[in-house]
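Write out the 3D structure for:
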Amino acid sequence: MTRKEQLMLEATGKKYLNIYLIELNKLCHRSIGMDNLISLDETYRIIEKIKERIPKEYVFRDCGDFNNKEMLRDVFQGAMPSFVNGAYLFTEYSKNCGACLLDKLSDFNTDFSFDSEHSGIISIVNKEITMKILLDFYEEDGHRIDVEFFKKS
């Protein structure tokens, strides 16, 4: 990344930082602040590692009614062993503001509301960068959610 690109990202990040923190606090069980965000350089290094290590084809997918939180909780409960060392939480703002570092997967609020995140796409990657959970929620015959697991083989 060139210095000019980095300065542009930082300027954009400053513009959206407060909105990003509000969204993160809706998505997490604990308070999220600046100290939970990793640097843009580190965020981009992690994104590159994700591209290198985690296949683009999912190993598991479940779709359903967004309001069926039991389904989402069950999926997260099954993923817990792969996230014991923490996780990186990505939303659309992460590329401009930095990914959010979670101590554990259970810090994520599976009971989040449909409007908690504006783009409808959330990625959670374990610290080892061997597994990713992708949440894609949208309006189609009501509120729907797709949950996909990607795992390094």
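The chain has a mean pLDDT of 91.
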